[in-house]
Amino acid sequence: MTHTPPIVTIATGGRSSAQGPRVATAPDGRVTVQTGRGTLTGWPLARLTPMGI
Q: Which of 5, 13, 15, 48 is the most core-located residue (most Cβ within 10 A)?
């Protein structure tokens, strides 16, 4: 069984975001994700929890 990194969404700019598997976490909290075109680093966006769970 192989380990699949969690998919995270990051803010890459004021109005842009990216989503992909997490490949690294910086000491300041920024996250690096793998995209189809390389890697991007940004601030993780809050995860919404569905109501009733």
A: 5
Give the type of residue at 14.
G
Of 33, 36, 17, nearest to 25 by C-alpha is: 33
Sign of the CA dihedral 5, 44, 46, 18?
Answer: negative
Give this prediction's pTM: 0.77
pLDDT digits (tens, 9 = 90+) for 1-53: 677 778 899 998 889 999 999 999 999 999 999 999 999 999 999 877 766 65
Residue 43 CA to residue 28 CA, distance in Å, equals 9
